[in-house]
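FORM 12-B: Structure-to-Sequence Request
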């Protein structure tokens, strides 16, 4: 009732602006939801039907062939376990390093703060490149190990800036009260400051987990053992294996069947790889909204 009374009190111009906002917001939502629904439905449709008639809601034309083909592959399950392991370890290291690095950068009494800030910002625009990075990883003996995937990108300057801004928004009286009670710098950071930063920690953890979960390039470069490949790289291999080769003209029927299956597998692999993130996100949503708003407003 309050919303309706509020709209009644608005002028015609304000109402027009509001309804235009609703209209464009609806278009934005449709642009996101539409492709997602298309992918979900297309992953169940028979390959021949999908190629000839496109998406249909006739369930008699639906099949679980793509999911059976994807989930029956043993490499999927090992890749899933590897992806979870890499993502969890990467998230833990990244969040820990980010929170520790951001704290001194937020302190005005930290000598050399401007110098380190310049160094950090430079790394956001310039990098060593793939070949020097590969040589460094190789010389450190990390090729074909989990550390080659986890350590190089564990520190994010952008996340450090967000954490630093969050720290600056915390009242100084909290730190002064901790010092009056006899708390040391370490005690204040771990037992007082970090619990206050729980929304920020959850936001950074979500970002880093999703980033590592969707990553496959580093694993493709540094991991030689197929048993250590993450889920995204395994799914990529499945798609490539089912793509028809350019010289396959002797058996046109087999070529067409492989093309149809590859099209169907494409949608099924998207669902399989995205499902864990979809399940996880609702548990982080309240922290995500709170962490972003606090970090931006108080900064």
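FORM 12-B RESPONSE
SEQUENCE OUT:
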């Amino acid at each position: 009732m309050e919303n309706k009374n509020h709209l009644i009190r608005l002028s015609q111009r304000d109402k027009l602006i509001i309804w235009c906002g609703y209209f464009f917001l609806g278009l934005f939502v449709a642009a996101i939801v539409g492709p997602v629904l298309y992918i979900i439905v297309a992953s169940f449709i028979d390959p021949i039907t999908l190629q000839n008639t496109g998406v249909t809601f006739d369930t008699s034309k639906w099949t679980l062939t793509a999911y059976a083909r994807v989930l029956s592959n043993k490499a999927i399950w090992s890749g899933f376990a590897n992806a979870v392991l890499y993502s969890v370890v990467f998230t833990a290291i990244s969040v820990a390093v980010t929170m520790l690095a951001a704290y001194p950068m937020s302190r005005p009494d930290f000598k050399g703060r401007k110098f380190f800030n310049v160094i950090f910002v430079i790394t956001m625009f310039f990098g060593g490149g793939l070949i020097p990075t590969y040589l460094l990883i190789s010389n450190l003996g990390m090729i074909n190990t989990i550390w080659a995937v986890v350590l190089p990108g564990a520190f994010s300057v952008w996340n450090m800036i967000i954490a630093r801004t969050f720290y600056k928004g915390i009242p100084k009286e909290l730190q002064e009260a901790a010092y009056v009670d006899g708390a040391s710098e370490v005690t204040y950071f771990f037992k007082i400051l970090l619990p206050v930063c729980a929304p920020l920690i959850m936001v950074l953890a979500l970002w880093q987990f999703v980033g590592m979960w969707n990553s496959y390039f580093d694993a493709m470069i540094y991991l030689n053992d197929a048993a250590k490949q993450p889920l995204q790289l395994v799914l990529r291999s499945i798609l490539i294996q089912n793509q028809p080769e350019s010289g396959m003209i002797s058996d046109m029927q087999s070529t067409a069947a492989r093309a149809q299956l590859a099209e169907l597998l494409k949608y099924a692999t998207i669902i399989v790889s995205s499902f864990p993130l979809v399940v996880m996100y609702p548990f982080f949503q309240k922290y995500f909204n709170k962490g972003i708003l606090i970090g931006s407003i108080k900064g």
